[in-house]
Amino acid sequence: MSTGNLDFEQFRVFLEKACGILLGENKQYLVSSRLNKLMEQQGIKSLSELVQRIQTQPRSGLREQVVDAMTTNETLWFRDNYPFEVLKNKVLPEQIKANPGQRLRIWSAACSSGQEPYSISMAIDEFERSNIGQLKMGAQIVATDLSGSMLANCKTGEYDSLAIARGLSQERLQRYFDPKGPGRWAVKAPIRSRVEFRSFNLLDSYASLGKFDIVFCRNVLIYFSAQVKKDILLRIHGTLKPGGYLFLGASEALNGLPDHYQMVQCSPGIIYQAK
């Protein structure tokens, strides 16, 4: 094994311990593309030197910067579309009926660049427009991510034309965004005010989050080992009210845990109901 491979192996171990992400053995290119600039700025020559510096200088902020760089992902508006239709047509009516007089709570876990929680908020607005007076107590969306810099951007609710082009219809752009100058748009205040952004590591305690009616944990479990994935799914179950719903990514399946979740076919798509 070359020094480079040993370096990479050391970094893989560090990253899994720090945030649970399991890097594939052939992902050196991804690490290079995401960390080259940071390592250059810090005058760090190798991944093992980077890990050593993180361990010897815990207060330097370097650990947070590395995790930030490795976990930052662009995403789409209304990704896969069907979850948001299922939310409006099935899940919201059911949860309103099951929890009369209560505000619905929705968790967007690993919210990345903010498109998911804002898409959920727009879907709720669309539901309210066609079901006037049903969602009397409203809804709160708690959106969490590991990346501090990503969350800071999310809170502004501002996006450039490149980000806007990724899955947003012209109709929704006009209804839910205000132009903010050449090639920039901001999510309108009523959509933004429904969302609360928090920094959160899925490996940490969930106690501070409270209980939810609905959890979106989409396209994030693929980064974890089977054991960590199972642990996260069990802990998410602990945050869901009985009968609450879990949305996973289109290519993700919940295998096992039959005592905790029941699969619900929605054609298209599958969601999971907490037992």
TrEMBL record:
CDD domains listed in its UniProt record: AdoMet_MTases
Q: Which transformation does this protein catalyse, written as a reaction?
A: L-glutamyl-[protein] + S-adenosyl-L-methionine = [protein]-L-glutamate 5-O-methyl ester + S-adenosyl-L-homocysteine
Sorted alphabetically, which SMART domains does this protein's record hold?
MeTrc
Q: Enumerate the UniProt keywords alphabetically.
A: Methyltransferase, S-adenosyl-L-methionine, Transferase
Q: List the Pfam families.
A: CheR (PF01739), CheR_N (PF03705)
Gene Ontology biological-process entries:
methylation
Signal peptide stretch: none
Q: Where does S-adenosyl-L-methionine bind?
A: N73, T75, R79, E116, D145, N201, L202, R218, N219
Which superkingdom heads the taxonomic lineage of this protein's source? Bacteria
| Keyword Methyltransferase among record annotations | yes
- One MF term in the entry's GO annotations: protein-glutamate O-methyltransferase activity
What Enzyme Commission number(s) appear in the record?
A: 2.1.1.80
Q: Does the keyword Methyltransferase apply?
A: yes
Q: Where is the CheR-type methyltransferase domain?
A: 1-275
Question: What is the documented function of this protein?
Answer: Methylation of the membrane-bound methyl-accepting chemotaxis proteins (MCP) to form gamma-glutamyl methyl ester residues in MCP.
Q: What's the protein name?
A: Chemotaxis protein methyltransferase
What species does this protein belong to? Pseudomonas putida
Q: What is the lineage of its organism?
A: Bacteria, Pseudomonadati, Pseudomonadota, Gammaproteobacteria, Pseudomonadales
